[in-house]
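Dissemination and training. As part of the outreach component of the grant, students in the summer workshop were shown how a complex can be specified as a set of sequence lines and then modelled as a single object. The example used during the hands-on session is reproduced here so that future cohorts can follow it. Participants entered these lines:
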Amino acid sequence: MPAAAPGPAGASPGGRISGQALLILPALGLMLVFFVAPYLNLLLISVFTPSHQAPYLRVFTLANYGHIVHDPFTWQVVWRSLWLGVVTTGLSVVLAYPLAYHLARTPRRMKGLFMILVISPLLVGVLIRTYGWMILLQDTGLINQLLHAVGMRRAPLMYNQTGVLIGLVHVFIPFMVLSLAGSIQGIDPELELEARSLGAGAWRTFWRVTFPLSLPGLAAGTILVFVLAISSYVIPSLLGGFTVITVPILVVRTITELFNWPGGSAFALLFFVITMLLVWCYIRLIGRVTRPVT
Amino acid sequence: MAEISLRGLTKRFGNVVAVNELTLTFASGELVALLGPSGCGKTTTLRMIAGFETPSHGRVLLGDRDVTEAPPEKRSCGMVFQNYALFPHLTVHQNIAFGLEMQGVRRADIDRMVAEILDKVGLGGLGKRYPRQLSGGQQQRTALARALVINPSVLLLDEPLANLDAKLREEMRFYIRSLQREFHITTLYVTHDQSEALVLADRVAVLMDGVLQQFDAPEIVYRRPRTARVASFIGLTNLIPGRVAARAGDDVVLETSIGRLRARGPEDLGGGMEAVLSIRPENIELGRREAAVAGDGVNRLRGIIRERIFLGSFFDYRVDVGAGTLLRVQGGVHAVHQMADEVTVAFDASSGWTLPGGRG
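and obtained this result:
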């Protein structure tokens, strides 16, 4: 390990850098084994030929991609997944921002308690939590019983997009709150006071000072929630009752019910590429808006 | 431009009284320094004037207008914070334009007014920079320009020089003073730095534990402090406890452990009362032992030099005058005394000031 310590003769700048580079090796190894390798495997399967006797035949073909791209149902499902992701993200922002602001401006001794409350949805397993929602939301569930008791019509809250959205927003909102709170905490409260003394009311102070300065946190939060929401499987299947078909649901079905491994792989990869492109465009856009801040 | 009037202004945080029954009026166009040690309530007072803090009771008046209940944006206070609070996502130009935009000034007028004030504070041509690309002094000027451009009725400065290095701080004092004169704007300047307050202010309000101690011109606060705490907070002083033996007019004779001393004192100080004599180090003269001739109106003592520190333009001595009393004396470099020298210690009765005793 001559690079680790700067010796009198052998400590070149290049040696220092390779020493630091060693630090990323564990994470890099983990990513290679559990992320890159499976995706490469997926890529490989997606260009093999489907078969009924085996998961796939080792015969090269691009037909899997051709089928998917030309099937209008594919695009309908992709569109619905993205739409659910966008609406989940939007609702999370609206609900999380006031909470995050409050959290960021809370005195330190209260902060720990609020923090635990915020991340509490993550402390219960996704399956249990979703069943909990089902008890509340089903046609004979608590909410509908209440509605009925006060003489209102029952509302269909489950086995449709509404149910899926409620579930998704509930699970992923902590990520939005924490990202936003981190950013808002870095905004000096005196900036807001200064804006007020310069004649800006509370509302204009928010839009001209607080909001633009919180954009980095907003960017991180929206990307996290969007990506998590569109790749979610348990919540859309249980609360959607297989009436709301999303990409993950369709991929799993293609593989486990139709035994079409190559078709499912191709679909998964196509959606991966679409998502990457969208996120990349979004980061570019946000970067342009927030450049002066960072 | 308006006068600021505080009437019985009080702020409590739980059981703590941060500001207690503060009544003060600043004349129009006056620069008042609100001076006190940290935690004395001076910043809380400023925040109540700006509208960032609601008084527990009492009123705040700007001119004839009672603004006690008004939100900050309706008060027309120009505010400069200690760390300037420049908007990091806006350029210097946009920072200064912010207040004008809020007032609904036309775009063309805004650009002209911002350019004018940038020239006035010596930042012409820097409008396109972001705050982080400016030096500390330039940031300070930007903050001043932003506060002044909206033509506020009062200017509030919260420790505006505390983040600058010593040399720049010295320069900026005179700069702020001349800017304030030019705009002729009523200004409240909060500081814990007594020399800053003395140099800058028309009048100094000394605040301790939320209570106003004294509100006078700098020279009076320095030479005729009202309490021993004010005397020792503002500049250096020697405090010698004693009892009033006699008094006639301004003159006071004090019986102390180092002998009878003559000084001046306030009218409400009666014979027999406990008192403290305050004498500033620069007002004491050291002489050769032989030169000890008592004269009228001059106090003379014998002492021994116990400590001597060279401070460039003068020496700082500690002189033992007996009865366990060490006097601090600052003297010129031309008459140098050595350690353990026996000397005479002399000060004029007119430069000694008697304070009510019992405490401090």
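The longest strand of chain A covers residues 49-50. Students were then asked to discuss how this feature might be tested experimentally.
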